[in-house]
Amino acid sequence: MESMGKAGLKRFLPLLTTAGLLLALALAFAATYAKAQETVETTTTTAGEQPVPGKADFESLVKECKAYEKKFGIMPDATSYERVVGPKALIIRIEGTIDNAMMDYLKQSIERAEEENAVLIVELNTPGGFVDAATEMVVSISKARIPVVGYVVEKWAESAGTMILMSTHIAAMQPGTIIGSVQPIAYDPTTGSYQPVLDSKIINPIVKTLCEHGATRGRNPEALVRFVLYNDNYGAEEALEKGVIDLIARDRSELLQLIDGKVVRLPIGETVLIDVNGSYEVLEPDLRIRVLHSLSDPMLSGILLSIGALALLFSIASGNLPGIALGGFLLVLGLVGSGFNPNTAALILIIGGAILVFIELYTPGFGIIGGTGIAMLVFGVILLPIRGEGFAVGESYAKTLLYTTYALGATMGGLTAFVVYKVVKAKRAPQTLWKLKGAVGEAVDDIPEGGTGFILVEGEYWKAKAITPVARGDKVVVVDKEGPYLVVKKAEESVEEDEAHTR
């Protein structure tokens, strides 16, 4: 009885161990994710729903923010400048969640605008996103060697979007749009609930960022602090009246007209004149950015994480290799969408995909292992970084390398898929010698009914099993095959049966 209990425990030990590891991973990830994630939806609260910072705290933060004098942004009284930026404008569009993909998109666009000496216009239509990504974008704008114009379009630029808008050298809004609600929240991915954060260790750095990169552009310090502490929201007219934006423009054409001729002082120390003739080019995000941004959707990444973890758990417990492969793939994609380093994920996917394709070639798993491997290789190639610090190549070379990588990935993926298909088809094909069925041979040995012996068929010796007694020298006919034996009977009986069947 004791041995049976130990055997049962031993049987379920891998399942319990796997469940424990996955639970620990989920809890650790949830804790990190809860601290890093900012709200992606606008929330309205009343006085009794959350603690409100004291008047002293508010006045203290406003006082600190007012200490930042206007140094950068539009200089209406400037009469001199060091260089001219133009005559071209580049436009990018930040939509949906502010994430690492949008951060890379902005950085690449700033580099492109600097190379072409063009004004960069950042159109914002976002409910917010990750604080870390937004802060990196704010810093990138401050380091830019060309003017960056923030322009809220269509609906809103809330939360992290407001942080980005306040850091631009020229802030503009389209009529009917809103900004505000910068107070961060702690999001719990396990329950889907969130709580407003009022911890000074989190609030103060956000206020400091807004003051450092907003008040120095001439934005109203009191409004900046209220964005964070009280979730204030402003429409275009009110934002202009409050002094947190510079312009209101109905469309791109009007915006270009309004910024033309403006003198802007950049945080890098230069004063430049914007000279645009109304021409612009829209920079679309590349495939890598699009995939990363799609994976960063909170609902999609949550679904991928849940399905991937469950598939991995049950597949490990049951020893199902195709399920393990598919679950691991979905789990990596979910982690990428939740902020995991995409460069590391690309390396994991490429190595894992190559291993799975190799396994499929030798142990076919109904195509699931090979198909998952090919998908991992494709996503790994897509997520590979083409640009970045230290990657000193020209724009045309980078594009050539990018398209070549995609072409090679698609070609190798298609070739691998074809090879896997052929191998699986060959492995599944029944191993039979049906070409010998019906062939007439001669018995070399006396073979009793149910016994075995040798026969000669089409010039070759075969081991045979007789279903009727066969004497040496008798003519036999092959009727079937069982393993290494040909099943035979006397040819005369076969002929008689065929004649009877014909009658």
Descriptive report:
- Helix content is 50%, strand content 19%.
- With 503 residues, the chain is an alpha/beta fold.
- A hairpin with a 5-residue loop joins strand 12 and strand 13 (271-274).
Quick take:
This protein is of the alpha/beta class and 503 residues long.
Q: Layout of helices and strands, plus pairs?
A:
Blueprint: H1 2-36, H2 55-66, E1 73-74, E2 83-85, E3 89-98, H3 100-116, E4 119-129, H4 131-143, E5 148-158, H5 160-167, E6 170-173, E7 178-180, E8 185-188, E9 193-196, H6 200-213, H7 221-229, E10 233-235, H8 236-242, E11 247-248, H9 252-259, E12 263-265, E13 271-274, E14 280-282, H10 287-295, H11 298-318, H12 321-337, H13 342-362, H14 368-383, H15 395-428, E15 440-443, E16 452-457, E17 460-466, E18 475-482, E19 485-490, H16 491-502
Parallel strand pairs: 2-13, 3-4, 3-14, 4-5, 5-6, 5-7, 6-11, 17-19
Antiparallel strand pairs: 1-12, 7-10, 8-9, 12-13, 15-16, 15-18, 16-17, 18-19
Domain NfeD integral membrane: 300-422
Pfam families: NfeD, NfeD1b_N, NfeD_membrane
Membrane topology: Multi-pass membrane protein
